[in-house]
Amino acid sequence: MDLTALASAHPDHWSKATGIRALTLDAVAAANSGHSGMPMGMADVATVLFEKHLKFDAANPLWPDRDRFILSAGHGSMLLYALLHLTGDTQFPIEELKNFRQMGARTAGHPENFLADAIETTTGPLGQGIANAVGFAMAEEILRAHYGKKVVDHHTYVIAGDGCLMEGVSQEAITLAGRHDLSKLIVMWDNNNITIDGPVTLSDHTDQVARFQAAQWHTIEIDGHNPDEIDAALTEARKSDKPTMIACKTHIALGHAAQDTSKGHGALTDPEQLIAAKEAYGWKTGPFEIPQDVKSAWEEIGKRGVADREAWEERFDTLPRSKRETFNRALALDAPRKLSATVKAFKRQMSEAAPKLATRASSEKVLEVLNPVLPETVGGSADLTGSNNTKTADLGVFDTDNRKGRYIYWGIREHGMASAMNGMALHGGIRPYGGTFMCFTDYARPAMRLAALMKVPTVFVMTHDSIGLGEDGPTHQPVEHLAISRATPNTYVFRPCDTVETAESWELALTMKESPSVLSLTRQGLPHQRHEHKNTNLTARGAYVLADAEGSKRRVILIASGSEVHVAMAAREQLQAEGIGVRVVSMPCMELFAEQDDAYRKRVLPGGSVRVGIEAGVRQGWDRWLLGERGKFGKADFVGMDRFGASAPAEELFDKFGFTAENLAAKAKALL
Amino acid sequence: MDLTALASAHPDHWSKATGIRALTLDAVAAANSGHSGMPMGMADVATVLFEKHLKFDAANPLWPDRDRFILSAGHGSMLLYALLHLTGDTQFPIEELKNFRQMGARTAGHPENFLADAIETTTGPLGQGIANAVGFAMAEEILRAHYGKKVVDHHTYVIAGDGCLMEGVSQEAITLAGRHDLSKLIVMWDNNNITIDGPVTLSDHTDQVARFQAAQWHTIEIDGHNPDEIDAALTEARKSDKPTMIACKTHIALGHAAQDTSKGHGALTDPEQLIAAKEAYGWKTGPFEIPQDVKSAWEEIGKRGVADREAWEERFDTLPRSKRETFNRALALDAPRKLSATVKAFKRQMSEAAPKLATRASSEKVLEVLNPVLPETVGGSADLTGSNNTKTADLGVFDTDNRKGRYIYWGIREHGMASAMNGMALHGGIRPYGGTFMCFTDYARPAMRLAALMKVPTVFVMTHDSIGLGEDGPTHQPVEHLAISRATPNTYVFRPCDTVETAESWELALTMKESPSVLSLTRQGLPHQRHEHKNTNLTARGAYVLADAEGSKRRVILIASGSEVHVAMAAREQLQAEGIGVRVVSMPCMELFAEQDDAYRKRVLPGGSVRVGIEAGVRQGWDRWLLGERGKFGKADFVGMDRFGASAPAEELFDKFGFTAENLAAKAKALL
Predict the structure, then answer these.
(1) Which residue among A11, A146, A336, B306 is least crowded, i.e. fewest CB within 10 A of its CB?
(2) Is B123 touching A (CB cutoff 8 A)?
(3) What whole-number percentage of chain B has pLDDT above 70?
(4) What residues 455-474 of chain A have any CB closer than 8 A to a CB of chain B?
(5) What does the pLDDT look like over B96-113, one tens digit per residue?
(6) Chain B 419-458, CB below 8 Å of chain A: which residues?
(7) How confident is the prediction for chain A on average, in pLDDT?
């Protein structure tokens, strides 16, 4: 590349873009790790975006109607950190950049949304950002439809790399965006033909432009180092009535000895090459030093949105008070006042009606009363609406001609759904929930983990939660999936046993602020358990005594969740009839039980009894409740699955694998 | 549809295809569950494929050079079962079809490869079949290059539905196939515009033909009910020098009242509608009865390949004996004689050299000696070759101009890689291994689970297996992923502590016949532990005494895996210096330790000592070894992770999270 020509053609632009490149080189050198090439290659695109298109106010990174900027190619985190520092974000003083990738810094190896206000989402696992962005753009459409264009009217801009586009989730994302004409979603593809292993062509010959067109996107191809072309493309994209993909032909590690090579993808720390690159840029200041005129120019850019934001605030104040309150309440993830009363009334009614229902059907009943109280919920399913029972009458279906619709037909895209739900939650103003079969936790995993890491309260509705789904067989029968979600930090797994516990689980899931929830729901009908109405949410304690020893001394504690609670209750009856005192503990949420104080936990699970756990899944995760963390509880056993299931009617499977009152009672007696 | 016109235009074809439809209706009605519409819609395509193109011999379903038929839309399992019954596969008598979806039947809800010889792969989780198929087709190319066209020369045919094509993994699969010109891969897309939730257009507007073209496929569009068009398309596809996608416009549940509706996707069990459909077909026999002439015609089709197979056997016999032996040995998954000696020699050398290495680097050393001994290995990485250390000098790179190459640059496609590796293993003749960062277990999960369910010995090389990867931060630091793989039935997770254990782990992984392995390897260097050479593979016992109490009575057992073994050894030294007797147990594979007899396990983990486990992951899965399944072991503790990691240099992270000899020793003393 002839850098001199680039610099002289657009000197103002060049110095601003070089600021990004220089900071990247310096920070990566200081950390002795990181990815230099991507920020250096996309500096021109990012500069034009921030200078001329992105609606933002660096002093108010949380302004609700800002444009969203998502760095899907998260390894290029220095691009974002440099932009935030240059535009004057007070959370990114130069010290943060000097501490790139060090303990406690906001400038983590990959952008982490919970470390700084201006970081919209956590990226790094490739493809997630672009898939989140679909949720951001959907959220904008939905909120615009509900609140009006004068308070919600912004774009979602994404920088995605070759890696993002190779990941399968990107296909789910772009076909969703294409289906829904998400015209305010603009993806800038860093088309540098380099991956870690070598040129992209080593592993891919895809015509990306044709691929996006096949997904009903508008596409534009430009030289990613020409600011005029970048500006024109962004202007054109903003006018399109389809989502737009701008293919930006770039040189990775522009101007460095490693330009256009896979070495350029990584950490460029060679001191001499670093100096040579800065010389080639015409950059004369020392490490982490930005010439005052360049810094000032960037700070002006950081203030570009001030007037817009102020005008927006004035417009927002003209909204009716109730709308404003709902908007702010949803954004703050606060529960509406009516929620608690609605749940209580529903529980009272269900305690009396005591319906025999599959918990997926219980869940639908709950949603029928909660969705009208929570206008911020957006539901959906990955093509299993009738099976996941996620759609309620009032929601309406989100579509190109009904942006107010609060139900999404996600199609057969569990991963895309989960990532987009995270995006909705990150956007703010929406509480997303979506369903699939629990076994397909596997497909959604990358996004489910990120929900937990990012601290967003996405709700994953996982029905058909065991061999109880029957004939579909082991490919569809989760065995290890409760353990998988329970192993994941900051994730609450709810496995309710009846309609009342299901309502309590939903109440908790829909009031979480910083954690995702997994609802584990049955396909098969379950007898009702909670006959006495209590206003308290017992599920909030994680576990509680559902039935205690009667008549004789307690010698056995049976601990069960979900569809096995009624088996434990039946085993209790058998044992009580033999004069053995039995307590049944319902344990709908291990994580919440773990959070209770010692006294409560000891009250529910006192010593001196043998314990048998029962759950139609693997034992992994149960020992803490059976044995205690230090093995102090004594004798225990477990009825669960230690193999994959089989294809047969559910009742036969439960018999075959020992989920019967007889077997459970026998296990308890064997311990006595 | 005018069924009479269809029937009269091609009466012989019609009666054969109707046999599939009638059996489907009968089996689903008998089971009162299942999916009728897909087999009914694709019966014409399948009939022409089996009658005129598929190279197979129903009496010899395992003939190595057969064409492979993969039903990616696995919910349409009755299509496959009907074809196998009709063509005379002896594992599918009519009783099997009458027992569709019942306990112990081969006719499970979704096709399960381990239940019958003719079922090539397990499908149901959508998109997996088409992604497996890429591996099948690659395996064919590689084996053809190595053994010659006269013994390896077959096609891979796939039936895929809308669901398969919506799943992201399908994009990874088709772009891989397009990259490598896998011209013998032919996908028949069941283009019926119906999903469970409604018409495909509810959730997708993708131009699939354009999408496949963008991925460098040949495409053909046909009427999926016209046998002439089907035949012509398959003929054209077989001549193409690219992979071919045939878009077959079909009517789901053809001829049934539910035709062209999402109801038609499911179980069509209404007795009157069933009778009406059979009448419309002109089908006059009772349930599960096939007219003799139709059955005979199908059985002739089942014998079409006999001459081909016999000719192939003769050709195979002309191969040099050593080639035949290697071919058969690899197909049988038997280890070569030299393997064991090679591992022993390597271990001896390493015990002496005692290199300080990251186990990912140890792994590369091992592969350098094993790949030359095992011509059946095919390695690869999802764009992290230099980080996963999976490429060795002898392999050569698989490419369009080097089909002999045994190394695959999979690109940024963890899920596609894992599914395709499964396909290679299922094809037979190849032992695939492939690498990514352990955290991206999440992306590969659906295929990793299926490897275990399908009983194939795919090896997943998961490097950067803890916070020890350092600065890349929590998005890249696995915390729960050891637990995830350990929770999965029939999966062996190896976490070696040094080069010797790494060699032992590889020896075990590469001799597995029915189970996948996960190798958990470090980014960071580890001190060598196994200084005394033993010919026995100690890792095969799952856990063993690495160092015992010396001088004083044993009061503490420290149990560790992988990168924490040296921490346990250092803690032991500290405690021994204080006069406390300490045993260190290295536990590279929990699953193998669980398989040892009680006597061995008691010898390694006797009672009477306090136990502390240490592993840079969540505790889930450890309690069995710390506390015993019934809590009989007494006092125990654990040093692990109960939160996500952070971005910082590795040593600082290990300090911060307590993975130090000091902390471990303190935990042990607190228990004493």
Answers:
(1) A11
(2) yes
(3) 100
(4) 470-474
(5) 999 999 999 999 999 999
(6) 439-440, 442-443, 445-446, 449-450, 452-453
(7) 97
**Residue among B521, B436, B524 nearest B482 (CA):** B521
Interchain CB distance below 8 Å, A412 and B175? no
Task: Give the integer Cα–Cα distance in Å for A658 and B289.
Answer: 38
Structure tokens at A170: 């990107």
**CA–CA dist B349, B272 (Å, integer):** 75
Q: Among residues A136, A137, A143, A135, which one has the least CA distance to residue A405?
A: A143
Is the CATH code 3.40.50.920 the one for domain B542-671?
A: yes
> Could you give the angle at which helices A441-454 and A128-147 cross, rounded to 10 degrees?
70
Nearest to A409 by CA among A379, A366, A374, A447: A379
Whether the per-residue pLDDT at B1 is higher than 90: the answer is no
Q: pLDDT digit string (tens) for A294-316?
A: 999 999 999 999 999 999 999 99
- A114 in contact with B, Cβ within 8 Å: no
Res A634: pLDDT: 75
CATH class of B338-526: alpha beta
| Residue B315: predicted pLDDT | 98
Give the mutation candidate from A114, A212, A647, A657 for the B interface (greatest B CB count, under 10 A): A647
Domain ranges of chain B: 3-309, 338-526, 542-671
* pLDDT tens digits, one per residue of A493-530: 999 999 999 999 999 999 999 999 999 999 999 999 99
Name every residue whose Cβ is closer than 8 Å to that of residue A270 and which is 6 or more positions away in sequence. A257
Indicate whether A1 pLDDT > 80.
no
Question: What is the average per-residue pLDDT within B625-646?
Answer: 88
Question: Token digits for B10?
Answer: 């091609």
Any alpha helices (H) in A455-544, and if so which ranges?
481-487, 499-509
Residue pair B557/B587 in contact (Cβ under 8 Å)? The answer is: no
pLDDT one-digit tens code per residue, B208-249 = 999 999 999 999 999 999 999 999 999 999 999 999 999 999
3-state secondary structure A591-626: HHHHHCCHHHHHHHCCCCCEEEEECCCCCCCCHHHH
Query: Which of A449, A515, A638 should be substituted to probe chain B, the one whose Cβ sees the most B Cβ atoms within 10 Å?
Result: A449
Whether pTM exceeds 0.95: yes
Residues of B in contact with A651 (CB under 8 A): none
pLDDT at A629: 74
* Backbone Cα Rg of chain A: 28
CB contact under 8 A, A198 and B409: yes
Closest Cα to residue A79, out of A30, A43, A115? A43
* Axis-axis angle for helices B359-370, B338-353 (nearest 10): 140
* Residues of chain A found within 8 Å of residue B125, distances taken between Cβ atoms: 439-440, 442-443, 475-476
Separation CA A481–CA A478 (nearest Å):
6
Same fold, B3-309 and B338-526: yes
Q: For residue A338, which amino acid is it?
A: K
Tell me, what's the pLDDT at B628? Answer: 83
The residues in B 548-577 lying below 8 A from A, measured between CB atoms, are: none
Exposure string for B198-212, b = 16+ CB within 10 A, e = fewer: bebebbbebebbbbb
Fold of the domain built from segment(s) B3-309: Rossmann fold (3.40.50)
What mean pLDDT is reported for chain B? Answer: 97
* Phi, psi (degrees; rounded to nearest 5) at B584: -110, 125
